[in-house]
Amino acid sequence: MFSFDKKNAEKQAFVDKARSEREKRELQRVKQKEEQKHAQAVNVIQTAYKKHLQRKKDIKHLRELWDNDVLYSDGNGTNSTFSVSSIEILDYSYLMFAFFNPSNDAKDLSRFSYLCKMILSTTTPSIPAKSQTQETSNTIVPFHSLLLNERHRVLMLKIMKKILWQCVICVVGFLHETITPNSSKPLYLSGPELRLLIYFLDPKNYIVKGTIASYSSIWSQQLVILHDYLINQRFYKQFGYGIMLRVNSILSLQSRAAKAELVNNDKKLLKSSQLWLMACLRCCLFPLSLNNEVDMTLNNSQSLEMSQSNVQDRSVIILNNFICHILTTPCLLSCFDEACLEMFKTYNIPSRVTYTMCTPNRAVKILQAITGNDTIFLAGNLVELMSRIDIISLPSNKLKITFNNFIESIISPLQHCQKFVSTKQSNTHYQYHPIFTWYSGTTDPNISTSHFNRLISQLEYLWQKPFLLRSFNHILNFKFDSQFNNNLDSSNKSSQKKTLDDKKSSLTSSQMTLLAVDTQDVCRLYLMLSKLLNMQKHDIMMNLTFIPRLVPALWQFMMCLGPKGRMKIFLSETVIKDPEKEPLIGILELFCESCGILLLTIDDDELYEMQTSFSIERDLRPMATFFNKFCFALLSNSLPDGNPPAIFESARRVLLQLHSRDTRRIFTSPDHTWLLIKDPKKSLPLSLANFLKKSSIVNSNNLGTSFLERIRNNDPISVKILNLLPHTIPFETRLDIFRESDDSFISDWSDIVIKIRRDHVLDDGYKQLGRLTAAQIKGQIRVMFVNETGVDEIGVDQGGPFKEFITQLIAEAFDPKCGLFAVTPDGSLYPNPHSTASKLPFYTFLGRMIARAMKEKILLDSQFAEFFLSKISGRGVFLEDLIGWNNELWKNLIFLKRYEGNVEDLCLYFVVDEEINGQIRSKELRAGGSHMAVTNYNRIQYIYLMADYKLNKQIKEQTEAFISGFQSMIPINRLRMFSPPELKRVMSGEDVDWNISDLRQHTTYQTGYFDQHKTIRNLWSILEEFDSKDKNAFLKFVTSCSRPPLGGFKYLQPQFTIRLVSMEYDDSESRPVLAPVKAFFSFGNSKSASKGRLPTSSTW
C-alpha cells in the first residue's frame, strides 16, 4: 500500500517538473518573438523617419528648384512679364503639386499665385493654326489649349483640376499675406486666382472659330469634365460659404453707411466686396450656361454616347446645387446691384428657378437637402428677385413664367418650413427663433438677428398693396351677377338638352375651375405666411382685409363655386368630415380671417343703410345661414375627445360677429337662422340625432333622445355645442342649464367668519377673503358687521348679512371714486384703464366675489358696459362699441373714415396720446407708428388699431385678472353660453316693468303672517298703487337690486319672505336689544304674534 503511494508521488513530481520546463520554454519563445517584433518595428520606424527626412529634403530641394526655375523669391515674383511657354508652365505646375503643402510652408500659397500669373500671361487671342500641333518659339498659345493636344491632354486635365480647385479654396477663403499673429485675417477679395477661375470656367473661352472650329466640341467636352469635377468636389457649397461671409460684410457696411458716411477704406472694402460677389456669381453661373453648348456639340458628335436626357439631368443637378448653396444665402439679393441683377436675367435665372420650385418632384429634392433657415431665406431671396425684376408689371412671355408660377414657387418653401415651426415650446421645438418662435431645425451661428429683420423686409413685398392687387386681380374683376346666374341656370337645366346656352355654361364652368385653382393657390400663400410669421400676421391680414372690395368679392366668388353654388360645396358630407381634404377650403379659411377683421370696422350706417361692403339680402343673410350650419356640422362631426378642425375657430369668429350684429339690430329671421335645436326637451331631428349618434363615445340610448337629456348626461358633443355655439339653443334652455349648475358650487370647506366694518367693506373684505383660495370662498361665509362706533352688531347670519356684505362690497368697488372702474356716459361700468398694476389682485378678487354673487342669485344693481360684457363672453368688440363710451372718439373716427379729401392733410400718425398722472404720453399703435403717416390707403387700419387699443389693449390686464378670478369660481364656458345682452340680463336682471302679482305669488310668510292677513293685504294694496319708479325703489330696498330676476320672482334667491317680529320684551329682560332676536327664534311672549307690526323682509 505504501509503495503504491510512493510511486504515484514520484510520477506526479515528474509530471509537474515536465510541465514547469515546458512553460519556461514557452515563455522564452514568446519573449523572443516579442523582441523580434520590437526590432522589426524599430527598423520600420527608422526607415520611415529616414524617408520622412529625405522627403523633407527632397521637397525643400524641389521648392528651391522651382523657385530658381521660375525666378521666384521672398514670396513675390521678380518678373512682371513672362516669356514661358504653356508646356513649360505645365511642367512647372506638375513640379509644384509635387511639393505643394500650405500647412507646412505658407509661401506655397504665394507660389501658387505666381503660377496663376504665369498661366494668365498665356491667355492671348492668338490661336494655333490647324497644321500646328506643337508650339513654336514665336507663338504663345493659351494654357488650356493643351487640352487639344493628345500628347499632353491626360496630364493637362489632371493639372487643370488641381489648379482650379486650389483657386476655389483660395478665392472663398482669406488672404494669405503675412499678418500679425493676433490680427484677424481679411477676406480674399481679388487676385490672380479669381481671374484665372473666371477665365478657365467661362465657356466662351473654349470656342474655336474659323477653319479649326471642329476643335470646339473636344474643348467643350474637356470643360464639361472640369465643371463636373468641381461640382463633385462640392464647388457650390464652398462658394456658398464664401458668399455668405462677403454678404455679411457687405450688409454690415451698408448698415453703417445708412447711419453715417463711411471712411475711404470702408468704401473701398464695400466696393471690392461687391465686385468679388459679382465675379464669384459668374463662376457659379458658368456651368449653367454650358448646357446649351454641350447640347449642340453632342448633337454634332457621332462618337459620344451621351443622350439628351443626360444633358437635362446634368442641368437639373447643377441648378439644384445652385439653389441649395447659393440662393439660400441669407439676404443675398439685398447685396445685388443692377449689374448682378442683369447677370441673373442674362442667364435666365428667375424663370429657371421659378420653374424648378413650382415643379413638385424637383422642389422636394431641393427642400429635403436644406434646413428650415435655408428654406425661409431661399423664399426671401426669390421674393426680392421677383420684386427687383418687377414681376407685377412684367409680361409673362418675357420671362416665360406666369405670375401663378411664382406664387407656386413661393408656396413650396413656405410649406416645407411648417414642419420646423411651432407656436409652443416642446421636446422637438425647443430652440427660440426670431421669426418662427419655436424651431426644431439646425441653426447657423453666422446668421445674425439683423439678417432676420432684412428677411422680413424681403417678404413684406408679398403683402404690400401692389402685389395684393395683382394676386387677387381676377377676384376683384369677377362679375358676380352674370357668373352666378349662369351657374344657377346650368344646374337647373336637364342633361338631355344640349343647347348653345349649355355649351356657354360648360365654358363658364371650366373658367370657374381655373379661377378657383388660382385663387386657392393665392389663399394658401397668405395662410401659410400668417401661420409661419406669427409676429407679422396682424400686418398681413390687415393689408389683405382693407384692399377695397376684396372681402366682399371673395364671398361672391365662393357663392359661385360648385355645381349648385350658394356655398353648398362646403356643406357636403365629405367636406364636413375632413375639411383639409377639400382643395378649395383655403379660400374659405382666408375669407374667415379677413372678414373677421372687416366686420369689426364696419359701422351700422355702412352695414344697414349704405350696405357698402355687403348687401343684407344677397350677402349677410346667406352668410349667417351658411356659417351657422357649417360650424354646427363641423362641431357635430368632431371627435368627442378631440378638437374641431382648424378652420372652425376662424369660421366661428365670423359667425359670432354676425350673431352679435344681429342681436344689436336684427337683419335675419332669428328663429329660422340661428336656432338649430328649437325645442331641446323634445326628440332631436333625425339629422342632428345622426350627427350626435356618430360622435358619441357611449351608447346613444343611454344619453336620451332630447338635447337637454344629453347635456345632463354629459354627452361631449352636446356639451361642445352648448359651450361653443350656444345661440343655436333657446335662451330659456341655456338659462335653466346655468341654474342647474349651482348644485355643484358648494364647497366642503368649513364655515368662515369674518368681521367687516361698515365704512370699510371693500378693504376689510379683500384683506380677509383675498388671501383665500377659490374653494374656500365657495364655502359658507358668515359675516359680522362692526358699526361706525366699533361695536359688533348683534345678529345671526343666516344669509342676509352675507348678501348685504357682498352687495355693499360690489357697490363700493364699482364706485368710480375707488378707481377700479370707470363709468360711461350712460352709467355702465368698465375697468379703469389707468389703474395701476398693484390693483390687479383686486380685479381677481372682484371676479370671484361677483361669481359668488351670481351663484347666490344676487343681482348686480350696476351694469357693465356692453363691450366689457363682450370680452367676458368671448366675443369680439366692434367699432360701434365706442358709442356711449367715448362719443367724441367715435365721431372723430367716423369723420376720418368718410373724409373725402387727402387724409395726410390731417397730419395723423399711428400713435395715441394719453394723459397719465398729469403727463401726456404717446404710444405707438404699431411698430414704427410714430413715423408712419395716416393716408387714404391705411386709414381703415388706423381706425381699427385705435378702436382696438381703446376697447381691448387699454384694459387687457384688468380684464384678464377679472376673468381669471371669475373662472376660478364658475367655468367661463358657463358665461359664454350667453351673448352680451343676455349676459347683462343674467347678471343684473330684467330691465322691465314688473308685476306685483308675480312677487306676491312667490312670497313666503313666517311667524304668523299669511297672504290674507290684514296687514299683508294692506301691503299689497299699497304696492299696487306704486308707479315703476317706486316699485323699483321698493325692490331695491328688499333685494338690493331694482330689477326683477330673469324669468320672474320664482327665481329670486333667497325667496322673498315676510315674517312677524315682535318688539315687546319681558320686564325681566335686562337687554331689550335682544328682544328681536328672541322673537326671531319664537322666544318670549307668544301673544305677540297676534299683534300686527309692520312687515320686514328677509333675504336668507
TrEMBL record:
GO terms for biological process: protein polyubiquitination; ubiquitin-dependent protein catabolic process. InterPro entries: E3A/B/C-like, HECT_dom, Hect_E3_ubiquitin_ligase. It comes from Dentiscutata erythropus. It is an enzyme of class 2 (transferase). Keywords: Transferase, Ubl conjugation pathway. It catalyses: S-ubiquitinyl-[E2 ubiquitin-conjugating enzyme]-L-cysteine + [acceptor protein]-L-lysine = [E2 ubiquitin-conjugating enzyme]-L-cysteine + N(6)-ubiquitinyl-[acceptor protein]-L-lysine. PROSITE patterns: HECT. This is HECT-type E3 ubiquitin transferase.
